[in-house]
Structures are given as structure tokens and as C-alpha cells.
Amino acid sequence: MAGNGKLWLSDLSNASDRSKSEMKEPLEELRLCCTSWRFAAETNNLSPWRTIPPECAGYVEEYMTGRGYRYDLERVSKEARVFANSVKLGDDGRDIWIFDVDETLLSNLPYYALRGYGLEVFNPAEFDKWVEEGSAPAISSSLELYGEVLKLGFKVFFLSGRGERHRNVTVDNLIKVGFKYWDKLILRSSEDGEKHATEYKSEKRDEMVKEGYRIVANSGDQWSDLLGSSVAIRSFKLPNPMYYVP
Amino acid sequence: MAGNGKLWLSDLSNASDRSKSEMKEPLEELRLCCTSWRFAAETNNLSPWRTIPPECAGYVEEYMTGRGYRYDLERVSKEARVFANSVKLGDDGRDIWIFDVDETLLSNLPYYALRGYGLEVFNPAEFDKWVEEGSAPAISSSLELYGEVLKLGFKVFFLSGRGERHRNVTVDNLIKVGFKYWDKLILRSSEDGEKHATEYKSEKRDEMVKEGYRIVANSGDQWSDLLGSSVAIRSFKLPNPMYYVP
């Protein structure tokens, strides 16, 4: 990792003519260091970051495209479903489950796969083009949770950092991949401007509470989806080692 | 993992007469599943739990005694030191850094090593005996952070779930392993009784804020050290896959 004072990275770069068995140890060291970085990211221990550590590019790619990411998603979905089924809902229709959209309901993996899984600095114009295609696939474990939550009688609110100008394409994309119903789809208006996500989403949750809703649960891949004011009784942090939204 | 509907566990139990190479895949599957469990635990996605999953006993032991736990600790400590050095302290001596004690400053690994690293249900009487020995070693990466935080001029508060009756032995243990100074050592009084840690620690933080302190940072191995009211500007979650404190 950059600046952690360990020498494994230079060890690795000098290792091209080593035998496969001699390579094993530095690769294991790299795996452990990148796992520590990923843990620090997932537990919100890192300062704001713009790209993944270059030396972890291979690690993150393997994680995102292999079983690691999928198993982590499935585990969160399962825990959330267990919780959902344990909740005794009021008969006033005021119990809500909030879902973030990107990397929570919809996957932008096809976009990030072409950009090193977080290795490149985020390009808003390029990302807008991708959003406007409306072709993001569903995260299937979230689709499963969403179905269960609806069936149990929760009100379902989608709270996204996407702008109002992307409402139509977002609606179409969500419906196309199976998220066919919601009680509210909240997008950033011009008034929300450049607010940090934590502030914007907290304000929106404050409004829900003022309107008499009980925020029972909240699912999101960013801590800025989950922390701040009017936090849910249970928050579910989905994995995302590719980018950080403050 | 218990109840996740996958068959890898029964695969494993039938694998005793397989060749080493045939064993590799189920072991990799087990590693991935236990990593997902650990992520879910560290990101606070699990419902309250009393013991680690039995099938992950070997995984947790390897993590705790190998490089994994140490690297994770070092990464958190490093991130916290970067943050500490970035803070512009007021000149009124009111900027504080809170540290939890067990698994944050002091390690109970010698105790848990004899009890399957979280495989056995917590035994308060047995754990009290261990605490009363006063021989818990320091977590060295936390000692490093603590030294830096003191040097920078933060006030240092230790906020622990240990009871007042263990004050003397805790003081002796802390000093013996290098934590020689603090501004407050807050322990559970009889009034705090059986409160959940989140409630007890939130109340103590509320008091700090009322007294005019600014809670700049908080280091703890449990989410119940960090969440609730009067949360710190930055919270640092240390790894601990061995036990859960509500």
C-alpha cells in the first residue's frame, strides 16, 4: 500500500525472473495488504479517496468478477431478509425500507470494468453517458431482498444521488430489470446541488421522519447512504471497493 | 455458513479421503464464505451473535494468529494517525480522542486463544478472572497511535465497558504495558448496570459534549463503541471477529 512503509511492492516489481514458488509469498503478502485496505474501506476507516490503490488493481478486479463480491452481496441480502422477517410492522403503513440505487439495486459493473474497477479517476460526463443508456443490470441478491420486503408490507423508498434530469431513464432502467414498484423515488433536485451525500440523504430522511414514517431499514453501498441524522434501526452496508462517495 | 443454503460444508465433511488437489476448491470456498461472514461482522451487518460460526473456527484462528489481524490493526492505526495529524486543535484543551480498552488498547487474545477464538459462549466469571490477572498485553499499533495522539495535544479519554470494581487492576495493567497517562478513565458504575454498551457509551459521550469537549475521534473494536449519540467526527473501527458486544 502506498506509504505504509513496507517493502513488498518493490519486492514484487523485482520479482519478474523469480520462480513461481518464490513468487508465492509476495503475492500472499499483496493479497493480505489489499484485504486490509478493503476492510478499512468497508468499515469507513479511510479518509476520502478517489481511486483504488494501483497495486490492488488485480486484487479488486478478481474480487469484483469472482465469487468474493457475489458472496458478500448474498450475505448482506440474507442478513437483511432475516431482519425484515423479524420486524412486526405497524398497521398504519408507515414502516419504510430505504434503498440506494447505484451499486445497491443497479450494478454499474459493466461501466467500471472498462475503467479498471476504480483505478481511473471518476469522470462525471462519461458516467452520465452510461446512466443515460439505461442498461445497468440488477444486483440479483438485492432484487431478492426487495421482493421479500415488498411482500412483507414495507413501504419502499429509493433514495439516490442521481439527478432529477435522469428520472425517466432511471425509472425505465429499474423497471426493465425487475424493480417494478416503489412508493417514492427520490432524486437530487437543483436545490440539493453539490451537497455531500451524507447531508443530502440525511435531509431526505429527516423529511420522512417528519412525515410520520418509521425508517426501519436502509440498504446502501456507501456509508454516506447510511450515516448522519434519522438513521435507520438497521443499516445494511453492501460491499463496494471501487469508489467512495463523501 | 449455517443456513445459507449452500452445500460446501457437507462437501467438506465428505472430503476426508480426497486428494490434496481435490481439497483445494472446497477450502477456497470455505475461505471465501468465512471472509464474507467476517465482512458482514465488521460492517455491522449481522444480527447480534454469541459465537463465531463453527465452520469458520480454523479461519478465525488463522486470521487472529497470522498476519491478517495484525495488518488490519496496523492499517486502522495508520489511517487514524494520518487523521490525527490533519486536525487543527483548538487552544482551549477541549479536543478529545476516545479509546475503548478491550481489543482496542489491551489484547485479550491470550484468553480467547484458550477458548477457540470466539467459538465458546462468553463466560463472564471466567473472563473476570482473566481481567483480574492484569496481564493483558498492549495492542502495539494502538500504543503507537496513542503516543502520537498524546504528543499532538489531544486530551485522551478511555471509555470502557469494564466495571468500577476492576479499576485498580485495569489502571495497573494499562500502565504496565505502556499506556501511562490519560485524562479520564471511565468505567461502568453500578448505575450503568446492564445497559447496552451503545446506550452507556452514548450517555458518557453526551456528558463530555455537555462539559464542552469536542469529540474529534473515537477508536473501538465494537460498533457499540462508536454509534449512538454524540458520535465522533471520525470513528475508527478496529477489527474483532471473535465477539460481539451489543
TrEMBL record, chains A, B:
**Among its keywords, does the record have Signal?**
yes
Signal as a keyword of this entry, yes or no, is: yes
**Entries under Pfam families matching the protein:** Acid_phosphat_B (PF03767)
The organism sits in which domain of life? Eukaryota
One annotated GO molecular function is:
acid phosphatase activity
**Keyword terms:** Glycoprotein, Signal
UniProt xrefs under InterPro entries: Acid_phosphat_B-like, Acid_phosphatase_pln, APS1/VSP, HAD-like_sf, HAD_sf
The family note in this entry says: Belongs to the APS1/VSP family.
Protein name, please?
Answer: OLC1v1027107C1
| The species this protein was found in | Oldenlandia corymbosa var. corymbosa
